Amino acid sequence: MADQCAIDGGVALFSLVYGKRMGNGPPETQDGWRYRGRGVLQTTGRASYAHFGAQCHVDFEGQPDLVVDPAHALKPALLEWNARHLNVAADNNDIEAITHGINGGLIGLTQRRAWFAKIWPFVIGAAPVEHATEWKVQSALVAAGYDPGSPDGVVGPATRLAILAFRAARGLAATPQITPDLVHALGL
């Protein structure tokens, strides 16, 4: 299949993987390629192209490239966003709810959180994430031999576990929060 991708740019692979799914026909129709994930929120599958096309009054099914056309690209994305009621999650910076709402699962959540942590300070005019106490604690935990994941300024499950392990080794109170005694013990 790798050789075939080099020859046809992935047409056969997409046609096979997405064939007979999401409203696509069998691989020989090349619907998997034609209706591959594209656009702002990755509209995927013939059924989605038809659905959003009908909602937007744009023939995405008949002309799939229109889903990335600047004149129409935001239309299916905004419809999907609104249909899944994601404004509340966005207002609360709930990346997990947004990821689940758009993708139906949580694949890529860690990377999204890391990107959000880097971008959000610029959005609100704050200092870069590397200046945040959370990022400094994560970096200090890494240096001390504990694994909070890649420092990203977001205190998630891995960071909380690393904090608890560090606290236990130092005889500190067993709490996963960043507190003054933790900051002091880490030498920050």
UniProtKB/TrEMBL annotation:
Residues covered by the Peptidoglycan binding-like domain: 137-184
SUPFAM superfamilies: Lysozyme-like (SSF53955), PGBD-like (SSF47090)
Database matches in Gene3D superfamilies: 1.10.530.10, PGBD-like superfamily/PGBD
Protein name: Peptidoglycan binding-like domain-containing protein
Species assigned in the record: Sphingomonas glacialis
